[in-house]
Write a structure and sequence with these properties.
The protein has 1537 residues and is mostly beta strands. 15% of the residues lie in helices and 40% in strands. The chain is extended and about 150 Å long. The two termini are 103 Å apart. 26% of the residues are buried.
Length: 1537
């Protein structure tokens, strides 16, 4: 029964497998038919006809399928595991295999899971429809089948069919299967026929399934356009703005495009008003092109005047919170400058009003309109009030425009400023700086293209190329990718290992060396782009992709041909190929072989013979430049290698990308006091433009400095960080991957200063005087003049009646230059208002605030009006000058003086105080004694006979502080004696002028002064200086912030200047060194002098006793005008040369004279010296002494006679003698002579072994040998000298050129001098006194290097000499000087001094024996003394006992030990560490306190053991041990046998 049921199951399983195969074949045929039918029916057959045709075909097929399925058991049906879910229907689970034989449906490629494969079951249309409905929104592979299946799924989704199961007989099932096979063949033949008849029926033009939709957005937002496009071949999408192509890669900060599975999008970031335009997407393939339009409207908040880019935007009402948020940004960061490697922080304080609890605005930072994300290099912080951005370890990539944007529910506010990053200091002068912006593109399995941007500074020479380094992620090992530097700023890196992560960096190279490395790139993974897309999607079990594939295995399929093989890059260094993978490649991975062929030949050569590549990209190197090549690709896998692809067109190896063309000449426009706006025309016809670099240079220098270190793509740039007032020129160069363009011509020079604008408003319009028909007005000048001097003012008026005011009318048609004006022809008792407008070269300012309503009626005041026009000059830390104009109304009498008051700005009204007590008749006053850094306010009052008038309007606050860079007027006297005053200003603006005044009144009389001004320097020249020119001279610079200075010319100062002028008119050549004389070699005489300065036209006249001397045999002259050195040489001085030598100089109108008088004894002394120098020169022509014979004592107390000799030869003989007796070579003294590098030494104290000398003589007789070196002579025990060494030592040098002799007398005074030097060395070598305690007392000692018996030394106690006694003894042991103090007592405490004679006064060594030193030494002495006593008196065994006693058994043992001790010790005997007691067996005795004995009668074996005699008293214990061995003679004899 079991066997029968097993057969039934096997048969059913075979039927099921056979049925599935039939269904698959049928579905394949139907699928092809439906695709081709639908695509060809657009013009001829309606969709309704196609649907009915499909339904008729499906009904026949489904009937057979359902009949077959009816034969399946319920158990088999439950095993079908394909989950088909449709809305409103139950789930049908099908599985074509039993559970134990279920297959895995993982999609595999190169042994990596890339998705799940959903099998297609050929059951019925309902199965397919359920699968379509379950994944209709999923992403699927694009292709011909996708287009057909998409329409098929849409049609069949409308059908509602149920699974019908019925039973059929085997005969009926076989018949239906045969019918299906026949039908399949018919459909396949029909499909092949259709393909032959219309092979292009599958391609069709692009079609927009979803069109882009127009949108309206607020300014600053981001908008995204979407569209979906179908078509075959797959169309290419391009986006346009107002018919201009959008290059998203070139403007990545603005646009981003994406294309994924026929869905395309364009993202526009940070929209502004200029993004309002018509955008359209264009889809193009070989069948045609279609377009779809959409309009983007960017709305801007606009109220009143148009807001600037940095102005805060009005905010709208937030319904969510019920308020309107207003945002204010304060404490703004300015333009910042950093250097590579530094850390910089940017911050602003943000105030959002009103404050809503638990609501915080969104704070976003941007760089060049791209949002910044926090990383290891970028840190952002929002504290609730302050937004901070910190850039860690700056790189040039961080340079750019930084924007802080604060988003609220009502709108947004933003603020921007530029951050410049300067290059770090280079390690080697002249090398380029590091490249920047290293990126990885076109990443594949074993290939990546690395791109970068060239640096702004090439160094001392042009960049020769670049090195690319790579590093695996997690490793610190960098490997260089190229051996030869590449010129292009892009390089293909091959040989990567699939699946590994890499980083890259780039270094630049020029003639000076290699730059630092760039910032490393982002980490990339070497893998197939499709695998990367899979990995980027969701994780398993749903991978984001469904692959429709057949169940049948495709293993063993040879891949098809690669297509679209093209050359994407071609340079003289490499060529890059790209192609599309084959359509037919099976489930396993495909690899590629590349072949090349030289144009004009038919020989193809495989390039990568060793290892096929995995990526559809390949870079070829080492191609011959100038040759043409074609290329092709072969695909391969484990099944075999495909046919070769179509070859590429001929490609010539060489650079295809040209350098950028030269940009237009830049135009520089003033901006601020430290910046300039630069604009230029962009380079034309440039490919892959990276941007522009801007350089600047100060006029007059050749040093060019980069303005930006990161290329900018705009043709307008603001150059910051310039020197205010400096004159600059600019140039621009473009850069792309090929390199730099030529720099443009220099721009026109521009002075860095604020751009000229209209001035600010005038303020404080007020009345100072009124009469019947006129009114005198005054006002305050504008706070800012707009960068140009104010040229005048216009005054307007209007009448006022009650609360109604009339229209404004002009009072003056010609501008007034003062801040006062007399308005005439007015009507009495009429009320007027006035307003003032300031004017400069840029235009007229806005009107000031209207004055108060003023009635025109005559004043009756008797005192004068208020002074007007108060202003200050020469503001310094502690002083300033206040100036004013007289009042317009004098009162009833003329003004006769003024009073000036001041107060600190922080003080109240009670803080006013008078600057002076007496009236000041001048219209200015210099105030001193101010506090630096304090602000002051000033006012003035006028006085006439009647009294003092009202105070003027307050002036200030004025800060008492010297401006940086302030210069003062200085007086100069030129070479022609012209006296002038000079003032310089480095902050000149457009229209600035120098105004000179005397006593603060403008100078108009040019008879006394001539004023010359040029650039930022002015000079006031005194025509005829005299007492009439005394006074205070001041110079002010208009159109600046009060730059001025003054100089007071006093009578004393004028006299000093006149004296200096006379010196300059009648100049004297200054001498740096007056004439001097020096003796030279050979007795020659040199006369010389040196002048401070002279011209090349200076002439020198030489004279002796007023007689002109010239160059000849006796005199040689030399004059160097560049150094001012004048020389005259004479070979010797003769008797006739006594007299006066003179040098006379003439240099234009300057003259100078210097003389030297040589007469009398002085001349005769010089003559003798000359003759001596001549003799010395003659002596030195032969062997001679450079240093004559002398002596020295070494630190080791060796006494050396030494001399230095020169100009000797091998033949030169050297003779030493003592007391006129020559020292022969075989003498004992000869071993003491040494010669090293021309230095002769005679070591007097050297010890020589006479026996050794005899042995040397014997050896010399047997075999001649050279004289032994000095170091080979054995040394004595120590160096020494004695009176027997005294004598006259002589050294003689002699050869054919001459001889020289040197003598040293070492007798009497000479000997004593040697000994004194020896004593000095010994005395200074003595160490500090040390103290040692002994059992007898104390020892004070000092060590010396050596000792000589003639050395005198002594000891002192408390500065009194110590006399020798039994208790105090001094002496010498070896090299130690000591003092013994026996049995010391308290009297021995105190200061001890050791005095050693050093040849002069003596060297003293002091030791203070008191306090702790005494206590420790005395304690140690007592301890040692007690120890010595104990050692002498302790109990001990002094003899009598043997070490071992061998005794015959039965004999008696009697031993006696001698004992010592004081007091008499106690005695005991022990055996084997046990004490013995005297008894009949052991008889122990101790007699006379000295003898201890032991007696053992008839010893036995038991008496063997270790015995000891132990003695003990209060000073110690000692044991005398011995061993007793008892033996039996018989047993010993038996052992021997």
């Amino acid at each position: 029964m079991a066997a029968k049921s097993g057969e039934v199951r096997i048969k059913k399983r075979k039927q099921l497998q056979k049925h599935v195969q039939l269904v698959q074949q049928h579905q394949e045929q139907k699928h092809q038919f439906e695709s081709s039918f639908y695509m060809s029916s657009k013009s001829s057959v309606s969709k309704q006809t196609f649907t009915s045709h499909t339904a008729s075909q499906a009904s026949h097929t489904d009937l057979s399928s359902l009949r077959s399925l009816s034969n399946l058991t319920s158990k088999t049906q439950k095993c079908l595991k394909c989950c088909l879910e449709t809305e409103g229907e139950a789930v049908v689970r099908l599985n074509p295999l039993p559970r134990r034989a279920q297959r895995t449906y993982l999609a595999m490629e190169d042994k990596e899971v890339i998705g799940y494969v959903v099998p297609l079951f050929r059951a019925n249309h309902e199965v397919v429809r359920g699968l379509a409905e379950a994944h209709e929104e999923s992403q699927t592979e694009e292709g011909i089948q996708y287009v057909a299946m998409r329409n098929l799924f849409k049609r069949e989704a409308r059908e509602a069919m149920e699974v019908r199961v019925e039973k059929k007989s085997r005969t009926k099932h076989v018949r239906e299967s045969a019918e299906r096979v026949e039908l399949g063949k018919t459909m396949e033949e029909w499909s092949e026929f259709r393909k032959k008849m219309n092979p292009d029926s599958l391609t069709h033009t692009p079609e927009f399934i979803v069109k882009p939709r127009g949108q309206t957005v607020w300014e600053g937002k981001t908008v995204k356009l979407h569209c979906t496009v179908a078509g075959w071949p797959k169309p290419r999408i391009a986006w346009y703005k107002n018919n201009v192509l959008i290059d998203a890669k070139a403007h990545s900060e603005k646009y981003t495009t994406e294309s994924n599975y026929n869905m395309h999008s364009l993202e526009i970031k940070n929209c502004d008003f200029f993004d309002t335009a018509q955008y359209y997407a264009s889809a193009l393939n070989v069948k045609g092109e279609v377009s779809s339009y959409a309009t983007i409207v960017v709305k801007r908040f606009l109220e009143g005047d148009e807001a600037g880019p940095l102005d805060p935007k009005p905010h709208g009402y937030s319904a969510e919170h019920g308020v309107t948020f207003n945002t204010t940004i304060i404490d703004k960061f300015g333009v910042a400058f950093g250097r590579e490697g530094e850390t910089i922080s940017l911050g602003c304080t943000v105030i959002v009003y009103p404050t809503v609890r638990k609501y915080q605005p969104e704070v976003v930072w941007y760089r060049d309109s791209v949002p910044l994300k926090p990383s290891k290099w970028v840190h952002t912080h929002w504290s609730g009030e302050r937004a901070t951005l910190t850039l860690v370890h700056l790189n040039k990539e961080d340079e750019g425009m930084y924007t802080l944007r604060v988003n609220t529910k009502s709108g947004f506010d933003s603020y921007s400023a530029y951050v410049f990053v300067r290059d770090a200091e280079v390690d080697i002068e002249g090398v380029p700086v590091a490249p920047l912006d290293v990126r990885c593109q076109d990443v594949n399995k074993d290939y990546v293209v690395v791109t970068w941007k060239q640096p702004a500074v090439e160094g001392s020479s042009s960049i020769l190329g670049y090195f690319i380094d790579r590093c695996e992620a997690g490793s610190l090992h960098w490997a260089q990718c190229n051996d030869i530097p590449v010129k292009y700023a892009r390089y293909p890196v091959t040989g990567l290992v699939e699946g590994r992560s890499y980083q890259f960096r780039v270094r630049a190279l020029n003639k000076a060396g290699v730059s630092r490395s760039s910032r490393v790139s982002e980490t990339v993974v070497a893998m197939d782009p499709s695998d990367r897309a899979h990995r980027a999607g969701p994780l398993a079990p749903w991978t984001g992709m469904i692959k429709f594939t057949e169940e049948d295995s495709t293993a063993g399929v040879v891949p098809g041909e690669a297509t679209d093989v093209v050359v994407t890059e071609a340079t003289k260094s490499y060529v890059v190929l790209a192609w599309k993978p084959p359509a037919q490649r099976g489930h396993e991975g495909v690899m590629y072989y590349i072949e090349k062929c030289i144009s004009g030949t038919d020989t193809w050569q495989r390039v990568n013979t060793g290892m096929p590549v995995k990526s559809p990209r390949f870079a070829l190197f080492d191609l011959a430049e100038g040759n043409s090549y074609s290329f092709r690709v072969r695909c391969c896998n484990s099944a075999g290698t495909s046919e070769a692809s179509q070859s590429t067109a001929d490609t010539t190896v060489g650079d295809k990308m040209d350098l950028p063309s030269v940009p237009g000449v830049p135009v520089a426009i003033r901006n601020t006091s430290t910046s300039v706006v630069l604009s230029w025309a962009g380079s034309k016809d440039v490919k892959h433009l990276a941007g522009y670099y801007i350089d600047c240079s100060v006029v007059g220098t050749e040093e060019w400095m980069p303005c930006n270190n990161k290329p900018v793509k705009q043709t307008r740039f603001v150059c910051h960080g310039l020197i205010s007032g400096a004159n600059y020129v600019f140039r621009v160069k473009a850069v792309n991957a090929a390199g730099y363009s030529q720099s443009t011509a220099n721009s026109d020079a521009v002075v860095v200063m604020d751009a000229v604008a209209v001035p600010a408003k005038a303020t404080g319009v007020r009345l100072v005087e009124a009469v019947k028909d006129y009114m005198a007005l005054t006002w305050d000048a504008p706070a800012h003049d707009g960068g140009a001097a104010i040229r005048g003012y216009f005054i307007d008026y209007r009448t006022v009646k009650g609360s109604a005011a009339g229209k404004w009318h002009e009072l003056n048609h010609q501008a007034v230059t003062t801040t006062t004006y007399k308005a005439e022809n007015l009507k009495e008792n009429v009320i007027y208002q006035f307003q003032v407008r300031a004017m400069n070269m840029a235009g007229v300012s806005r009107a000031s605030l209207a004055s108060a309503a003023l009635e025109c009626k005559e004043w009756t005041i008797t005192v004068p009006g208020v002074p007007v026009g108060l202003h200050v000059q020469e503001v310094r830390d502690t002083s300033l000058v206040v100036l004013w104009e007289p009042p317009l109304f004098d009162g009833r009498s003329p003004v006769n003086g003024y009073y000036l008051d001041l107060k600190e700005a922080s003080a109240g009204a009670e803080g006013w105080r008078a600057v002076h007590e007496k009236v000041n008749k001048k219209k200015y006053m210099k105030i001193t004694g101010l506090k630096s850094g304090t602000a002051y306010v000033f006012r003035a009052r006028a006085q006439n006979i009647v009294g003092v008038g009202k105070a003027s309007a307050n002036l200030g606050p004025i800060l008492a502080q010297t401006r940086p860079g302030t210069t003062e007027i200085h007086v100069d006297v030129d070479d022609n004696g012209v006296i002038s005053m000079i003032f310089e200003c480095s902050e000149m603006n457009e229209g600035s002028e120098f105004v000179w005044s005397k006593n603060y009144t403008a100078i108009t009389d040019t008879s006394r002064l001539t004023i010359v001004s040029e650039g930022g320097r002015t000079r006031a020249i005194f025509n005829t200086p005299s007492l009439d020119d005394l006074g205070t001279y001041s110079c002010a610079v208009t159109n600046t912030e009060g730059i001025s200075s003054s100089y007071t010319l006093t009578e004393e100062g004028l006299k000093r200047l006149l004296d200096l002028s006379h010196e300059h008119k009648f100049p004297v050549i200054p001498f740096k060194n007056e004439m001097s004389m020096e003796l030279l070699e050979k007795g020659r005489v040199r006369f010389w002098c040196q002048v401070e300065k002279c011209t090349s036209a200076c002439e020198v006249e030489y004279a002796f006793n007023n007689a002109i001397i010239t160059q000849g045999t006796k005199y040689t002259m030399n004059f160097d005008a560049s150094s001012g050195l004048i020389e005259m040489y004479m070979d010797s001085l003769e008797v006739t040369d006594e007299g006066t030598f003179t040098f006379k100089l003439v240099d234009g109108k300057a003259k100078g004279t210097t003389s030297l008088v040589m007469i009398g004894d002085e001349f005769r002394e010089l003559q003798k010296k000359s003759e001596f120098e001549r003799a010395e020169w003659v002596r030195k022509q032969g062997p001679h002494f450079v240093e004559y014979l002398g002596f020295t004592v070494t630190d080791e107390c060796d006494v050396l006679l030494k001399c230095k000799i020169g100009n000797i030869k091998t033949e030169t003989e050297i003779f030493w003698s003592k007391d006129s007796i020559e020292i022969a070579e075989d003498d004992e003294e000869a071993a003491k002579i040494e010669m090293t590098d021309g230095n002769l030494t005679f070591n007097i104290g050297k010890w020589v072994d006479k026996q050794e000398k005899l042995r040397e003589k014997e050896k010399e007789k047997e075999k001649p040998r050279p004289k032994p070196a000095a170091e080979e002579v054995p040394n004595g025990p120590r160096p020494k000298i004695s009176k027997r060494d005294a004598g006259v030592y002589e050294v003689l040098l002699k050869d054919e050129r001459g001889q020289d002799k040197s003598i040293f007398n070492m007798t009497d005074a000479g000997y004593q001098a040697v000994m004194n030097e020896l004593f000095r060395v010994i005395a200074n070598s003595s160490t500090e006194i040390q103290i040692i305690s002994t059992e007898h007392g104390l020892i004070l000692s000092s060590n010396i290097t050596c000792y000589n018996e003639e050395l005198r030394f002594g000891w002192l106690h408390k500065d009194a000499k110590i006399a020798a006694s039994e208790r105090l003894k001094s002496g010498v042991t070896g090299e130690q000087l000591w003092l013994h103090i026996n049995e010391p007592t308290e009297k021995d405490k105190g200061k001890y001094t050791m005095d050693i004679f050093d040849g002069k006064d003596g060297v003293k060594r002091v030791f203070e024996l008191s306090g702790k030193a005494w206590e420790e030494a005395f304690e140690e002495f007592q301890r040692l003394k007690a120890a010595a006593i104990a050692e002498r008196n302790r109990a001990r065994v002094v003899g009598g006992l043997p070490d071992v006693v061998a005794i015959q058994e039965g004999k008696s043992l009697n031993l006696t030990g001698n004992v010592w001790g004081e007091p008499v010790p106690e005695v005991s005997w022990v055996k084997n560490d046990r004490e013995l007691v005297s008894d009949d067996r052991y008889k122990l005795k101790f007699e006379h306190g000295k003898f201890a004995s032991i007696n053992i009668t008839a010893v036995t074996r038991a008496d063997s053991g270790k015995y000891a005699l132990v003695v003990k008293n209060k000073y110690g214990t000692e044991a005398g041990a011995f061993t007793v061995s008892v033996y039996n003679p018989d047993e010993e004899e038996h052992k021997t046998d």
